[in-house]
Amino acid sequence: MQLLPVLDNVLYNVQRQGKISFYMTAHGEEATIVGSAAALANDDEVMGQYRELGVLLWRGFSLDNVMAQCLGNEEDTSGKGRQMPVHFGSPEHHFHTISSPLATQIPQAAGVGRCIGRRQVVSLSIRIAMDDAYAKNRPRANPLSMPDFHAGMMLASTIPSPTLFIARNNGFAISTPSSEQYNGDGIASRGPGYGIDTVRVDGNDVLAVMSAVREARRRCLEQGRAVLVEAMSYRVGHHSTSDDSFAYRPRAEVEDRKRIDNPIVRFRLFLEARGWWDADAEAELKASQKAAVMKAFKRSETLKLWELRHLFTDVYGGEEPWNLKEQRQELTGLLKKYGQIYEPWRKELAKFKDAGEDLMGKQ
Amino acid sequence: MPLTTTISSVPLRRASKALVPLFRQQRRSNSGAVEQPPPPEGHLPTVANSRLLRTKRDSALHTPGLSWADEDPSAPSRAIVGGRETRKMNTYQAIRDAMSIALAKDDNAVVFGEDVAFGGVFRDSLKSLASHDPARSLFVTINHLAHYIGKERVFNTPLTEQGIAGFGIGMALMGHTAIAEIQFADYIFPAFDQLVNEAAKIRYRSGGTYNVGGLTIRTPTMSVLELTHGHKIVIPRSPIQAKGLLLSSIRDPNPVIFMEPKILYRSAVEQVPIDDYELPLGKAEILVPGEDLTLLTWGTPVYHCETALHMLNSPAPELESVIPKSLQSAKIELIDLRSILPWDVHTIVESVNRTGRLVIVHEAGLTAGVGAEISAEVQKRCFLKLDAPVKRVAGWDLPNGLQYEKFHIPDAIRVLDAVVETLSY
């Protein structure tokens, strides 16, 4: 819960320096994300939206893995450098690869939940989402208002599938406040309409989140049915590095939230009251975490990108179709012709492992 | 099978005399079907009596490219096909048969969609199936399947196309074989986000760590088609093709959209091998060899093309004036593309290099239709061999108007005209 904001700060800043192309922080929602991760089994399948890196960290996804994905380098096992930063994924950690289109994972999670039910594996899928619209050209879209939310709830309820839906209600979808997202009683009020057991929880109270998610998970597995958890919090950070949130909300409101209702401070006070934590331990942890994050970043920065041929791999399983084979050969010919005399390509090729030789040698 | 035809226009009715000898000869030489007196409307081939359909056990068992899935693949291929049984099936029955084989052989296979549990909106009547014993035969309705295999594996979904596609993706992500149905291809668009942004890209964007190869989306079609990359698109023309291609699609390591020409569900009838067999994806099939022009199509228009070729070779007196005598003996090569993505460029290019002429026929609209892709590729590869411009016969760039259908679809007369124009260029 402490590592997430440290990592967010570093990656947010390196994005500002132009070293990575994009980033999204989870500031203010650490308790929701880490608290729900802690209440799940580590092999429960997770389908997320994009602000759920904390689940992966909880499950032991390494800092090197995080950096590799954000930089898209040769160690990126989330997607071989093909997706934008923060689109993490790892079958080993039972975390399905993130994709940008909002809410598409909700009906998929119902399908995942259904499989797990059939196999009688004690596990379930979880959907953590519900805040910000990602695509700028759909300013009013949030997952709640997307038809896929409706589809997913309905499928998980009627088929039925043991799927745990966790909604992060952080008040904003980019600039759109929740008052313009819905006129009903939030997301939780929808659950009963679908026949889904539902609970709303203080998303800034990590113990409340844990206890709600643990109970929700128990019901999911025992009843073989979907359960919905709505965690109320506040998006303290900007929507993303492409967003300046003070254009649509007062800075004072954000500062108040940070001061008055900070999930990390609340949990720290709890620990200190129990005598389990103090200022020295806090300072030491922060320093060591920051050093570890910086070390991972610096190491990752020196790595090459995947071999250039991976531009063309993994589109299909099995035999490569003729059109892709021919287009790969066409690029190879162009690389041979222009790779060393066309400046933008020459500079770019140098970043790849084998500098494009893997393609050019394969004619 | 009764010899019926839907051709009823007056000029064509008069054509019957001219066509009778030709038709008789073909029936004898190609299918050996029982001779019957000609119906009053004449004998132009339609789906009901197409000689492209394999109505005899022997010809069904010799379907080109057919491979038995129940044989040891490492063993030498069995030339003897005796011992294999066939059964008369229409297209929908063949599709059901394929799904029942998939369910019986793969414990992880599930079938779902709107109204599938009671048999689907295109199910055959239960009455006609009463004679089949589900315990002995795999040839059962889906609601029999739901009964025998269980509602766990054959089930209804709520009416939500994006939900059906997303749910199937979720199951396929977990390694299951998800056979989803979209009730009509026209209703596939709500699922486009799931299909184009998710299913087609999951393997690529996850660096190969996740895939939805187990996903097959079946949908009754014609006239709806869109392209994207990362999934395959298949359209069968007949019951034998439907079963073999569907079983290949279900087992292909990629998500496949399987588009079923709904007009052929009951109208096309063949003897279909009852065992487990597959037909190759990505491969076109030359149905009628020829050397003067390549006529390329898929799905329902295969039969319009067949009719057009008969009209060309033996024109009714009314049509003789528009078909020069010299062209009436032209040998046209008829090809069924079968796989739209990836499509079989090698077979098409080889054919056009031989014939020098290409006419492409599809029901979907002309602009940015699949025909545009094929003609661009063919002119690139066959530039020096082409004797005429590539011609496309397609639906107009319009929505489908109910009462205007006969003038909207690329029917036999439009195909005939395109062939004549291209031959005489």
UniProtKB/TrEMBL annotation, chain A:
InterPro entries: Alpha-ketoacid_DH_E1_comp, DH_E1, THDP-binding. Its EC number is 1.2.4.4. GO terms for molecular function: branched-chain 2-oxo acid dehydrogenase activity. Its cofactor is thiamine diphosphate. It is an enzyme of class 1 (oxidoreductase). SUPFAM superfamilies: Thiamin diphosphate-binding fold (THDP-binding). Residues 3-302 form the Dehydrogenase E1 component domain. Keywords: Oxidoreductase, Thiamine pyrophosphate. The keyword Oxidoreductase applies. Pfam families: E1_dh (PF00676). Coiled coil: none annotated. GO terms for biological process: branched-chain amino acid catabolic process. Belongs to the BCKDHA family. The branched-chain alpha-keto dehydrogenase complex catalyzes the overall conversion of alpha-keto acids to acyl-CoA and CO(2). It contains multiple copies of three enzymatic components: branched-chain alpha-keto acid decarboxylase (E1), lipoamide acyltransferase (E2) and lipoamide dehydrogenase (E3). This is 2-oxoisovalerate dehydrogenase subunit alpha. It comes from Psilocybe cf. subviscida.
TrEMBL record, chain B:
Residues 89-267 form the Transketolase-like pyrimidine-binding domain. GO terms for molecular function: branched-chain 2-oxo acid dehydrogenase activity. Keywords: Oxidoreductase. Residues 25-45 are annotated as: Disordered. InterPro entries: THDP-binding (IPR029061), Transketo_C/PFOR_II (IPR009014), Transketolase-like_Pyr-bd (IPR005475), Transketolase_C (IPR033248). Its EC number is 1.2.4.4. Its cofactor is thiamine diphosphate. SUPFAM superfamilies: Thiamin diphosphate-binding fold (THDP-binding), TK C-terminal domain-like. It catalyses: N(6)-[(R)-lipoyl]-L-lysyl-[protein] + 3-methyl-2-oxobutanoate + H(+) = N(6)-[(R)-S(8)-2-methylpropanoyldihydrolipoyl]-L-lysyl-[protein] + CO2. One of its GO terms (biological process) is response to nutrient. This is 3-methyl-2-oxobutanoate dehydrogenase (2-methylpropanoyl-transferring). It holds the Pfam family Transketolase_C. Gene3D superfamilies: 3.40.50.920, 3.40.50.970. SMART domains: Transket_pyr.
